[in-house]
Structures are given as structure tokens and as C-alpha cells.
Amino acid sequence: MTTILEALELGTSALAAAGQPVPRLDAQVLLGHVLHVDRVTLIAYPENPLTPEQERHYGQLLERRKRGEPVAYLVGHKEFFGLDFFVDQRVLIPRPETEQLVEAALKIIRVALAAGMKPVVADIGTGSGIIPITIAVQEPRLPYLYASDVSPDALEVARINCRRHSVEERVRLLSSDLLTDLPEPSDILTANLPYVGTDEMELLTPEVRAYEPQLALFSGNQGLDLLQRFFTEARHSGKLKEHAVLLLEIGYQQREKLIHLLSNLWPLASVSFEKDYAGWDRLLKVVL
Questions:
Q1: Under 8 Å between Cβ of 136 and 195
Q2: Which of 85, 125, 155, 270 minimizes the number of CB atoms within 10 Å of its CB?
Q3: Measured between alpha carbons, how far is 250 from 262 in angstroms, rounded to an integer?
Q4: Burial 75-110 (b: 16+ CB within 10 A, else e)
């Protein structure tokens, strides 16, 4: 029988030969998934044997990873903000830069709660639900949040994650195109909408292009089509309270175009940007 150590060495070599950038880590994650153990256990018990069924399952996962399928889809989950979320090919894989948006939202929410208010929060284009669910878990004083998406598949994944984190009574999922079906005006809008331009497609890694849902990635040639529609709708729909705050993740080349758009829609609004870990403008904050 193949031991854990032998399986890891085999997997690491196979993934390295296929050009995967972190072959040993991938092999450890995949084998841990097959054996239902963590990486510490793999390292502590290298002599433990795999059953034939475990060997077969591990081999199948290695073959799929060699072809570029993301590890998160292979194991069916991804950590975000210290929480474990179910993901599959119906939704984007959570990125660490989106944690900046959640942190910014929590800060604003907590200021409002400290002042005795219960802000109405809505996440638009929620996907797997990581933003509203994380907010709900981190801030239990918030009675409810809205989370909308136009994709029924994405909403089903979000529903699974709501149940996983026991917030299904507080995160109210809506089948809606942007703000259309929000039932009340919001104090805080969060959104991680598609912002990659089709002109930038070649800049994405092959595995992102091949496996992640294009509906959740692309928005016109420059990635601005949906953002422009979102802001225009927010301005004219009556779905924002008087001093609402909008927090959005944006593309690295979109700052100037968005400043121009926002200055026309809300001339008196405060518009600011925060950079991500790579030094690119990534978080947009609009205070009305």
C-alpha cells in the first residue's frame, strides 16, 4: 500500500511537472481532503497507508489539478476571514483582498450601532455570500442584512453557506438584478461586482479563465459596464438613505473613470480609495 509520505511525494512531483506553482501545498491539501485530516496530521504520520479507494480518489484529484482546475473547487471549500465557505464552479473563489471590503463595512456598521442605530445593509451581487455572511457572523448585533444576486445558481451556493454559518434567518437572500428588488432603502451598500474587462482577459491566469464563472468576472471591454449601471441605478432608484455609504471592490485601472462618473452623479459625495496588498486601488468608498 502507498503511504502518506509516498503519496505526497508522488503528488508533488506530478504537479510540479505539470507546472503548478505550489505543488507540495496543493498535494497536501488534496491528500488531506481525501483522508479527512489536516496538514499537521499528514506530516506527523507519514507512514500511515492509504486504502485503495483513497489512492484512487487522490489520483483523480491530482489529474484534475494537473489540468488546472482550482484547488478550492476540487475540495469544495475556501477560507475567508477565518470562516470556511462552500464553493463550486457556480461562484467565484473568495479572494483575500475582499476582506478589506468586509473590514471597512464592519467599521461603519459598528459606529452606527454604537450610536444606537440599526443600519440597513445590503450586498449586491453576493455570489457565494461571503460578504454578508461574514458581516453577520462578525457583528451579531445586526438584526438582518440583504444579499442579492441575478444568478439562481449563486444564490443556491449562498443559501448553503448561510446554513453552514447559522445566519439563514438574518441574511435575506434576494433574486434581483442589482438593486431592483431591494425591499427598503439601505444605509450601507456593499458590492463585489464583475469588474474585469474582456480586454484584460489575457492577464488572468488560465485556471481563472477556464474554470471560474465568466458572468461573475467580466463586464464589458473595460470592466465598467455593470459598475456604471450600478451607480446610476443607486442614484435614481430611491434605494439609498440620505447619508448612505457605498463600498465596492474595483479594478486596478478604474479609479479616474469612476471619479468622473461619481462626480456627475453625486457632486457633493466623499469619494476615497484604498489599495490592496499589491499596492493597487481596490476598495472604493462613497459617502453621500
A1: no
A2: 270
A3: 14
A4: eebbebbebebbbbebbbbbeebbbbbbebbbebbe
Rounded to a whole number of angstroms, the distance between the first and last alpha carbons of the chain is 65
* CATH number for the domain whose boundaries are 78-287: 3.40.50.150
Q: Return the residue matching grid coordinates 488546472.
A: 68
Query: What is the structure's pLDDT at 159?
Result: 98
162-178 burial string, b = 16+ CB within 10 Å, else e? bebbebbebbbbbebeb
Taking the domains of the chain in order of start, what are their residue ranges?
Answer: 4-67, 78-287
Query: Which amino acid, residue 251?
Result: G
What's residue 269's pLDDT? 97
Longest dimension (CA), the chain: 70
What top-level class would CATH report for the domain 4-67? mainly alpha
